[in-house]
From TrEMBL:
InterPro entries xref list: Spore_III_D
Highest classification ranks of the organism: Bacteria, Katanobacteria
Originating species: candidate division WWE3 bacterium
UniProt superkingdom: Bacteria
Protein name: Stage III sporulation protein D
Length: 86
């Protein structure tokens, strides 16, 4: 039996969330892994997941908040590596 679009999106949101939590991944990493846009991943894990699996949603939110807090550090390292290789 074929899944409905809603079931597919709910399952995809859970899969993305598990990937983010298990790998301490960023939204960008998850988007690459699942072959979808960053905005789709963000919508899945921040909006859809809240209603599908609230416990998993809280876990993902923790990882995303940590990534947000560390974003400036990763950006600085990327810039540093860019100019070291020039």
């Amino acid at each position: 039996m074929r899944k409905s679009n809603r079931e597919y999106l709910d399952e995809r949101a859970c899969d993305e969330a598990l990937y983010i939590v298990e790998n301490n991944a960023t939204v960008r990493d998850a988007a690459k892994r699942f072959g979808i846009s960053k905005s789709s991943v963000h919508k899945d894990v921040s909006e859809r997941l809240r209603y599908v699996n609230p416990v998993l949603h809280r876990s993902v939110r923790g990882v995303l908040e940590q990534n947000l807090a560390e974003r400036h550090i990763r950006g600085g390292r990327a810039t540093q590596q860019k100019y070291r290789s020039v």
